[in-house]
Structure formats: C-alpha cells, structure tokens
Specification:
This protein is an alpha/beta fold. It is built from 16 helices and 13 strands. It has a domain of 55 residues. The termini are far apart.
Length: 353
C-alpha cells in the first residue's frame, strides 16, 4: 500500500472531518491495485469500498460494492433480489465453476458487497481444477471464509500459496497421515483470525499468525506439531488466542502442549478437549494451570476422573467469584456429590450422569 495512502487512512481514523476528506481525496487518486490491497487488509473500510465502486464504473458489481451489510446466503427468493437477478442473467460471471446444477447448493456460499464472502465444501470431493477455477474467479477476490475438505493437503497448501485469499477463517480438513508444512501458509494468510486445522501438519520454524483468536486442532498422527506449538507458546505466539479446541483420536500425550498453551494465553476464555484415550492428563493439565479460574466456557468429553482430579476441579470452580457461563462435562468416575457440585458451577451446564 502507498505510504501516503497509509498516512491518510491513519489520520482519518482519528475522526477529524478534514482528515476524512483528505483520505477520500487520496482514495479517489488511487488505482484499483492500491484499493484492493486496502480492502484485503481492512474489509470494513466504507470509504475504500466507495472508491472501489467508483473505479468499477459500469461493472454490475459496482452497486453491490456500495451496500454495507452482513454476508447473505441466497437460499430464499426474497433475499437480495437484485443480486439474484444479476446472477440469473450471467451465472458464469458471478459463479464460475459453481454455476452448474449442484454448485451453489452443494457448497455453502455467502455473498457480501457483490463478492463471495464464504465458500465451504464439506461433503463433495472436488478436483484440483475446480478449486483452481473457484479461487481464481473474480467473485473470490475478497474471500474471507473458506473450508476445504477431500483435497490432498499438499494441493490445498499449493492453492493457498498461489491465490493468497484474504482469509479470516479457514477450515482445512483431510483424513490422511501425510503431514504438511505450515510456514509459507502463515505468510500467505497474514490476516487469519480463526483456524480449524484438521490435517496433519508441522510448524518447525515457529508460529506466526499474530491475529489468530480461535484455534481448533485435530491431531490424529503426531508429526511433531504438538512439540512445535509447545516450543512457540512461551514466545507469545498464542497471546491473542480466545478459543481453543483440541481433538485427538489416538493415544497421544498432549498434556505438555496444552500446559504450554494455557500458560501463555491470557485472553483464553473457551476451551474444548475431546476424544482419544489420553483425556485424563489433559484434565489434570487444566487443573494445574489455573485456567479454571478464568475460563468462561469449558467442554470436556471422554475423561475418567479420579477422586483427586474431581476435588481439584470442584474446588477451583467453586472458588470463582462468578460461575462459568457454560460447562459441558461428559466424564466418568464422578461421585454423586461431585456431580451435584459441578452442576452448581455454571449458568448453562451439562454434567453426564
């Protein structure tokens, strides 16, 4: 982004009317490339969207680029009738590879300002050529939410590196053992805020997603990612994290990485731990970390509590000044008294009988 444009944008953020006017003038002088870079970095910049629409001229996307509002799914006839009419007139222009009979219905597609906001594909296997066409399509220019499944991880990695969409949310899933390196992906997706990493991966050179506030990990095969995360945590790599989900389907010892993450995530408020045969050490790590005093939401499944673990959880939760907002505990081995006491520790609660 041009430095003069950066400076004008910073000045306008102060709320000064003259600075806002100067920023508008700077936007009017900017070319499409500079405006695109600005909108990729800050999709909430209303003035930049206005300038973008002006530059589009007679392009049918121009009037939609001016329309502020939440992402829309065109699942009902009354939703965005003007956009629906444009798509019906020229489906290839708006939908690209999704223009076929099953395209928009087989993929959860949401629109915002005349472009795709969300593209998810959980249920149908799509070839690499389909994904190439989708991510290179004009409608995907400002794509912010993406879910990819049933594509080999290395192919997904290559797609992300080639197209570098301005994602804030990514669900990446594939049930294979082959690991994928994340380092270049971190550089390609600098604005990522929520990540569901359900592929086998490694991060040998550290963790560099400074905006990430929600992380979901599904670790079925250990290719070093737990150690990589544990090594990165003390350096503040996960300081912005507010929500953590940890799933494991096999007999892995993940307590060290969970302990490391809990020690260096001061903003963490929601924690989910599910699956596998090693949930008890994770529950012990939660108790030892002191996180029970600061979490708002806690979901634990498939753990067997010893009397000592039950006592640690109950005493720490009862010592809170305010109850948890939500507690979901599918655990075994609880005493009747412990179960009853846990049920008093949250406003919304499920404790398995």
């Amino acid at each position: 982004m041009d430095e003069a444009l950066r400076a004008a944008r910073r000045a306008a953020a102060s709320g000064d009317p003259e600075a806002a006017q100067a920023y508008g003038a700077a936007l009017a002088r900017s070319d499409l490339g500079a405006l695109e870079e600005l909108l990729r970095a800050d999709p909430a910049d209303e003035a930049a969207w206005g300038a973008w629409a002006d530059r589009l001229g007679e392009d049918p996307r121009a009037p939609f680029a001016r329309q502020e509002g939440p992402p829309l799914r065109l699942g009902h006839a009354e939703t965005a009738p003007e956009l629906r009419a444009e798509i019906q007139l020229a489906p290839e222009r708006w939908l690209g590879p999704l223009a076929g009979k099953h395209g928009p219905t087989a993929n959860r597609l949401l629109w915002q300002r005349g472009y795709w906001h969300t593209l998810t594909n959980y249920t149908r296997s799509r070839p690499l050529e389909w994904w190439e066409a989708a991510l290179s399509h004009e409608s995907a220019r400002f794509l912010r939410h993406l879910a990819v499944r049933w594509l080999p991880p290395e192919q997904t990695r290559a797609l992300l590196l080639r197209h570098r969409p301005p994602l804030r949310w990514l669900h990446w899933q594939e049930e294979t053992e082959a690991p994928v390196a994340l380092e270049e992906v971190m550089e390609a997706l600098p604005w990522l805020e929520e990540l569901r990493l359900w592929v086998q991966a490694s991060a040998r050179s550290g963790w560099r997603w400074p905006r990430l506030r929600a992380l979901s990990l599904n670790i079925c095969f250990d290719h070093g990612l737990p150690d990589d995360l544990a090594a990165a945590a003390p350096g503040g790599a996960f300081a912005p994290l507010e929500e953590l989900q940890l799933y494991t389907g096999f007999d892995h010892e993940l307590a060290p990485v969970l302990s490391a993450l809990l020690a260096d995530t001061p903003r963490l408020r929601a924690l989910t731990v599910l699956g596998g045969n090693r949930v008890e050490p994770l529950c012990e790590a939660i108790a030892a970390s002191g996180a029970l005093a600061r979490l708002d939401s806690l979901h634990v499944c498939a753990a067997t509590f010893t009397p000592a673990l039950e006592r640690a959880w109950v005493e720490q939760l009862e010592a809170r000044p305010e109850p948890l907002a939500k507690l979901h505990a599918e655990v075994y081995g609880l005493s009747a008294a412990g179960r009853a006491r846990l049920r008093e520790c949250a406003r919304e609660v499920y404790v398995q009988d």
